[in-house]
Design goal:
The complex is a heterodimer of chains A (295) and B (234). Chain A has 295 residues and is an all-alpha fold. Chain A has helices at 2-32, 39-54, 70-93, 100-122, 146-168, 170-180, 182-187, 192-217, 226-239, 244-264, 269-283; strands at residues 136-139, 142-145. Chain A has a single domain (2-283), classed as ABC transporter involved in vitamin B12 uptake, BtuC (Orthogonal Bundle). Chain A contains 11 helices and 2 strands, in the order H-H-H-H-E-E-H-H-H-H-H-H-H. A two-stranded antiparallel ribbon of chain A has the order 1-2. Chain A starts with a helix and ends in a 12-residue tail after the last helix. The mean pLDDT of chain A is 88. With 234 residues, chain B is of the alpha/beta class. Chain B has 2 domains: 1-75 and 152-167 and 180-234, Rossmann fold (3-Layer(aba) Sandwich), CATH 3.40.50; 86-151, no CATH class. In chain B, strand 9 (202-207) and strand 10 (210-216) form a beta hairpin. Classes of the chains: A mainly alpha (295), B alpha/beta (234). The interface between A and B is medium-sized, with 18 and 26 residues. The complex binds adenosine-5'-diphosphate (ADP) and magnesium ion. The site of adenosine-5'-diphosphate has 11 residues of chain B, from strand 2 and helix 1.
Chain lengths: 295, 234
């Protein structure tokens, strides 16, 4: 019973982290065909902005410090990445957008740059964010931390809000339209440029939330930005490139698969997802909910 | 209303439109005919700025803007070749996106939607189906409906009846007549010359990138060359 509840709760957290990271990655691909290799760096950036903003008199962080309370630090992290991501798009990606290889190179270099800057300021050692709320309660004999419960609620709210945004707002519909047919979108007057800026902002915000999760529950080091990138990549391939619902499903499938495997063989957790991915791709190369995109 | 002067378009080094001059007056129904590969689609793509060009284009007296989205805002709306619907969105979503440039809070979008449903009643039944599940004729109706939702002043239609069954073609062509009668100017490209001439006031003949002939539909019907090459007359 204890193990089952553990798997349910922790699996949900991990899956939500994956979903938040992957959805932004897939949206950026969907609307512009851009594979953003600095997406993992956005996740890391979110975590480190919060780590920096809540620190006070920490001699291991080489920056002036604010000592904000946790909610304020989280908010700053989310807003910060939501501003930095579209800036990066506008300055570095847009000018080379029609050349996929250059986009690859530029976003990869940016990711490495972010890693190096983070190492300079924070060192390579892993860090963690403190819990937002302390203590725990017990249900059916399992201890559940309030912090995890709160994080689950935040994840649900973030994913729900994203769902509503994409499916219930005019801008959201424009994002879907743009990812299905670029020419059609242009001909109804959708400004692809503006939509892409919005998508990079939303994607940055979601990546930052994923980063907060990661730093809260697993710890984060500058080089570990590769983990969310690789996971986003896998999820997006599994869910079908550019498909938002596909990547949500895939995130929960991979997240739970990993958590279940980790219960029995902790060392095999990463492997399980990969094997799963290979099986799916062999059976359905377009991904679970994959589909064609018209240009 | 639309005035095109000395339009030249290239694909890489291929000179595809050669000094095209074309004009559509407000409320007019104008057809462009010409064989496959003549450059009709290229002309339409240039007008909507999906393709760069050299030359001058004016709409209601001012130069056309550079951005497709701004051109849409002027009321210059295109039903493109290949339709370019949003395949995984519902018919209703596709139609509503046609009104993307318009304020959707007042009732005007609903009104326009009613007009589209009145013109193509089948779309009301299909409203919640994904666009990709529709037949070709129904998809073409959605494309035209989506364009109408944009409140066009000038509607460009690039071979809207291609590949459709005769009975559906008739329906589409009659809808165009209805749209034209409501005061919307129409620029229609067609390979099917009888269709192109049916409701048009003026016609242009485009061959390998050049406009080789222009005149009223009546003049075209009588023209020796047009009869021989395009109307199958002996
Ligand atoms: N994307 C493209 N790249 C290169 N050549 C093209 C492209 N699109 C069209 N063409 C060429 O331009 C000419 C005109 O094509 P198009 O405008 O599609 O003619 P139409 O619509 O009258 O059939 C053709 O010779 C065609 O091969
Ligand atoms: Mg054509």
């Amino acid at each position: 019973m204890t193990a089952l509840l553990d798997v349910l709760v922790f699996g949900f957290l991990i899956s939500s982290l994956y979903a938040l990271a992957a959805v932004g990655f897939t949206m950026i691909f969907g609307v512009a065909g851009v594979l953003n290799l600095s997406h993992g760096a956005f996740v890391m950036l979110g975590a480190y902005i919060a780590i920096w903003a809540q620190a006070l008199n920490d001699p291991t962080i080489h920056l002036p410090q604010l000592g904000l309370n946790l909610p304020a630090a989280f908010l700053l992290a989310i807003l910060g990445v939501a501003v930095i991501a579209p800036l990066i798009y506008r300055v570095f990606v847009r000018p080379v957008q029609d050349r996929p290889i250059i986009v690859f190179l530029v976003t990869l270099l940016l990711a490495i740059l972010f890693e190096q800057v983070a190492i300079l300021i924070f060192s390579v050692n892993p860090r963690a964010l403190p819990a937002m709320v302390g203590s725990s309660f017990s249900i059916l004999g399992t201890q559940i931390e309030y912090n995890r419960l709160l994080a689950s609620v935040i994840a649900l709210v973030a994913i729900g809000a994203l769902w509503l945004f994409v499916h219930r707002t005019k801008t959201g519909k424009a994002i879907l339209a743009l990812s299905m047919d670029r020419k059609g979108a242009a001909l109804v007057g959708i400004n692809a440029e503006r939509i892409q800026l919005i998508v990079w902002a939303v994607s940055g915000a979601l990546a930052a939330i994923a980063g907060l999760f990661m730093a809260s529950f697993m710890g984060m080091s500058p080089l570990e930005e590769r983990v969310p990138l690789v996971i986003s990549f896998s999820i997006v391939v599994l869910g079908g490139l550019g498909s938002i619902p596909g990547s949500l499903w895939a995130a929960y499938i991979i997240g739970y698969a990993e958590t279940i495997v980790a219960q029995f063989a902790p060392e095999a957790r990463g492997l399980a997802a990969l094997i799963f991915l290979f099986i799916i791709l062999a059976l359905r190369p377009q991904g679970l909910l994959g589909r064609k995109v018209a240009h | 209303m639309l005035e095109i002067q000395n339009l030249n378009v290239y694909y890489a080094k291929a000179h595809v439109l050669r000094g095209v001059n074309l004009r559509v007056e407000s409320g007019e129904f104008v057809s462009v005919i010409g064989p496959n590969g003549a450059g009709k689609t290229t002309l339409f793509r240039a007008i909507s700025r999906l393709k760069d060009y050299s030359g001058d284009m004016f709409f209601d007296g001012s130069r056309l803007p550079q951005e497709p989205a701004q051109i849409v805002r002027l009321g210059l709306i295109q039903c493109p070749e290949g339709r370019h619907l949003f395949p995984y969105l519902s018919v209703l979503d596709n139609l509503t996106l046609g009104a993307f440039r318009h304020d959707q809070r007042d009732g005007s979008v609903k009104q326009e939607l009613e007009k589209v449903y009145t013109m193509f009643p089948i779309l009301r039944q299909r409203a919640y189906q994904m666009a990709r599940t529709l037949s070709g004729g129904e998809q073409q109706m959605v494309t035209i409906g989506r364009a109408l939702m944009s409140k066009p002043k000038l509607l460009l239609l690039d071979e809207p009846t291609i590949g459709l069954a005769p009975i559906v073609r008739k329906l589409i062509v009659d809808a165009l007549k209805q749209i034209s009668d409501s005061g919307v100017a129409i620029l229609l490209s067609e390979q099917n010359v009888p269709f192109a001439l049916e409701h048009a006031q003026r016609v242009y003949l485009l061959e390998t990138g050049s406009l080789v002939k222009t005149g009223t539909a009546e003049e075209f019907r009588r023209d020796e060359y047009v009869r021989k090459s395009y109307l199958g007359a002996a």
